[in-house]
């Protein structure tokens, strides 16, 4: 019952009352430091009161709980060294990491905890010492891996075509080799080594991704921008395309160019994932993800309707014409593709003025130009501009959350020998087996003194303004003749009190 009350207090809107009641309940806890402590009991979602405060973005409760966990090591003048308990904060050897819970929640208030002590210092320590070097090495390794795969695709086994052409539009001169003919020369053996590296890399990608999908859940794993959801979809699809290409090569099935082309596009697009490790490029990837999976996905439905309607109209208009003179609409699939190019203004109107054009072509093309080029493209630009304005206010905050998510991912994937535990063991200071983070804080007394004087000046200004209003009500007839305003009265009193305040500051200095 006591643990349930603690969880309820974390969710209370009245933060001050919740903190006092929290302390009162813990005062009656018999097992304050043992494993049966109320603060260490998790709810059905596996969240302790401390983790629940982070997920809900309750910064007041989080700071209150951190004040209970800190130990002042020494203090000398304005300098103070504090040890913060990293229990439930550090993601090292944690099944449900506190940092991962913060970056995966949809509440923006939770990400503000990443700027609080000691979470900010812990993330900075992990990222600068281990996260950034490992991430840069992983980015370089992936680029070299993609270069190897690209070279294997460029020099894939082909042979000249021997069959006759079946159509005047048939332009194929090379065909795919059979499996027995693909690995005969020294160059083929070198390509085989690169293909084996590519397949092994695809298998490793699936081995690393599938456990996280089962642990986190597909909806959260693929749907969270901070966790890199879109890029996880891209890299998993890329690995599947590699395996499909391998099966088609082993069975000598024609058409391997289809999965190979998809794999090349997806693999190189995934390089943008590694931009999150750089402050200059990281926020732009967030913009791209928001626009693609927000504005562009909605716009594609409208674009598909317009293209389908006008492509059908163009095909019907040119259905009775000679396809040799107007080849852009010789069949229905080509009409769809040509209309798509017209929609994006990649090509001009496909009109052959050496022959007579149908009258309806001019009517349909006029309507298409108005709706597609002038209306819908400008609508897309306006939608993206609005998204850019909304995301620009929090892109730096989202980028820092991406850095935290990347740090937790690397810490979970890498062996323990490559990523030691951060912090200081409590045995060195007689604090048990818990781990602590040492943070040095500097308190400027002059700054706090200045703030107190500023508040005093504000209080004097308010008192003088109230007295001025009373005089204004008593001597209303006199003031009506002279016509002064309350603004000028408050300005004079403010100037007088400010003068006294500066004199106090000058004497104090």
From TrEMBL:
Annotated PANTHER family: TRANSIENT RECEPTOR POTENTIAL CATION CHANNEL SUBFAMILY V MEMBER 6 (PTHR10582:SF25), TRANSIENT RECEPTOR POTENTIAL ION CHANNEL PROTEIN (PTHR10582)
Organism annotation: Pedionomus torquatus
Membrane topology: Multi-pass membrane protein
Gene Ontology CC entries for this record: plasma membrane
Domain Ion transport: 135-393
One BP term from GO: calcium ion import across plasma membrane
Residue stretches spanning the membrane: 134-158, 192-210, 231-251, 257-275, 296-318, 359-381
Keywords: ANK repeat, Membrane, Metal-binding, Phosphoprotein, Repeat, Transmembrane, Transmembrane helix
Source taxon at top rank: Eukaryota
Primary location recorded for the protein, binned into one broad class: membrane
InterPro entries xrefs: Ankyrin_rpt-contain_sf, Ion_trans_dom, TRPV, TRPV5, TRPV5/TRPV6
Coiled-coil ranges (or none): none
Subcellular location field: Membrane
Protein name: TRPV5 protein
Organism ancestry: Eukaryota, Metazoa, Chordata, Craniata, Vertebrata
């Amino acid at each position: 019952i006591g643990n349930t009350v603690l969880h309820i207090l974390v969710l209370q809107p009245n933060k001050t009352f919740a903190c006092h009641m929290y302390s009162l309940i813990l005062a009656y806890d018999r097992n304050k430091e043992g494993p049966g402590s109320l603060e260490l009991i998790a709810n059905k979602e596996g969240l302790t009161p401390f983790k629940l405060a982070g997920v809900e973005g309750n910064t007041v409760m989080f700071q209150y709980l951190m004040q209970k966990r800190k130990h002042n090591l020494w203090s000398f003048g304005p300098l103070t060294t504090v040890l913060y308990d990293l229990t439930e904060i550090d993601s090292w050897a944690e099944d449900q990491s506190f940092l991962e819970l913060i970056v995966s929640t949809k509440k923006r208030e939770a990400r503000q905890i990443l700027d609080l002590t000691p979470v900010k210092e812990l993330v900075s320590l992990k990222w600068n010492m281990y996260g950034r070097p490992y991430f840069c090495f992983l980015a370089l390794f992936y680029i070299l891996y993609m270069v190897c795969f690209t070279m294997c695709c460029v020099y894939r086994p082909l042979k000249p075509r021997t069959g006759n052409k079946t159509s005047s539009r048939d332009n194929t001169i090379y065909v795919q080799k059979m499996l027995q003919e693909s690995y005969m020369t020294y160059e083929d053996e070198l390509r085989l080594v690169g293909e084996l590296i590519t397949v092994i890399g695809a298998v490793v990608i699936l081995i690393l991704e599938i456990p996280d999908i089962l642990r986190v859940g597909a909806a959260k794993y693929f749907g969270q921008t901070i966790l890199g959801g879109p890029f996880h979809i891209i890299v998993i699809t890329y690995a599947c395309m590699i395996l499909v290409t391998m099966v088609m090569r082993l069975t000598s099935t024609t058409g391997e160019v289809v999965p190979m082309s998809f794999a090349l596009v997806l693999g190189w697009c995934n390089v943008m994932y590694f931009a999150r490790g750089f402050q200059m490029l990281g926020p732009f990837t967030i913009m791209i993800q928001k626009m693609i999976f927000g504005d562009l996905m909605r716009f594609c439905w409208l674009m598909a309707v317009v293209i389908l309607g006008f492509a059908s109209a163009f095909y019907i208009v040119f259905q009775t014409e000679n396809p040799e003179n107007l080849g852009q609409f010789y069949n229905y699939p080509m009409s769809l593709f040509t209309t798509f190019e017209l929609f994006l203004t990649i090509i001009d109107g496909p009109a052959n003025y050496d022959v007579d054009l149908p009258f309806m072509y001019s009517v349909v093309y006029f309507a298409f130009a108005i709706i597609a080029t002038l209306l819908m493209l400008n609508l897309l630009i306006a939608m993206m501009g609005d998204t850019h304005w909304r995301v620009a206010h929090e892109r730096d905050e989202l980028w820092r959350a991406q850095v935290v998510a990347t740090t937790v991912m690397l810490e979970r994937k890498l062996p323990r020998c490559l990523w030691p535990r951060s912090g200081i063991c409590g045995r060195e200071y007689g604090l048990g087996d818990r781990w602590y983070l040492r943070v040095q804080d500097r308190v400027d007394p002059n700054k706090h003194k200045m703030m107190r004087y500023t508040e005093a000046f504000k209080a004097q200004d308010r008192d003088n303004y109230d007295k001025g209003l009373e005089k204004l009500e008593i001597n209303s007839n006199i003031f009506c003749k002279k016509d002064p305003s309350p603004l000028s009265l408050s300005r004079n009193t403010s100037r007088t009190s400010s003068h006294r305040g500066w004199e106090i500051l000058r004497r104090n200095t």
